[in-house]
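User: Thanks for the earlier help. One more: Putative lipoprotein LppC. Can you show the sequence and predicted structure together?

Assistant: Of course, both are below.
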Amino acid sequence: MGLSNTSARLRRTASAVTAAGLVVVSSGCGMVGGSAASAEGVQLEPLSVTSPTLQDGGPLPSDYSCHGSMGNPPLRWSRVPDDAKSVAIVVDNNNSRTGAEVHWVVLDIDPRTNEVAENTVPVDAVEGRTTNGKVGYTPPCRRQENYRFTVYALKGKVDLDKGAPLSETLRSIADMTIAWGRLTTTNIE
């Protein structure tokens, strides 16, 4: 019984840390009127994020959820600023009832890279921990959620080890973001 209470307390703490990290990321580089703004209020050019299998505003194909077996969907991006030193990807949902969940974090992608293939990680990129503590793509499960696939252009390399704590990873991304773009799916097919 004590172990169960400890586990529940740890899950609540992890959720609170994750939610705080997401607030840092979204407040540090939120979209305002169709363009990105930094924490300092400087207007940033948005990245264009697309996918051959996802449509912005469309459903997430169940193959990329916990009901399928395809792993991460392919993503493409463009308009990375010339001064970017790396790119990061964060896949999350923001559920007002249960709090935010991060399903995938990829760091230190070469800024000349403009896509990630299905069920792969770019060469020399580093995966961070997700909300559930695992490293790698954690397929979404909640059918009635919106899932956000956000690509960040960064002014430096995050330079954290594989599996670094989620709060540290998200804070580093927020601190270095110079541009970002997002593709959002609505619900799981």
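User: Great, one quick takeaway?

Assistant: Residues 1-35 have pLDDT under 50 and may be disordered.
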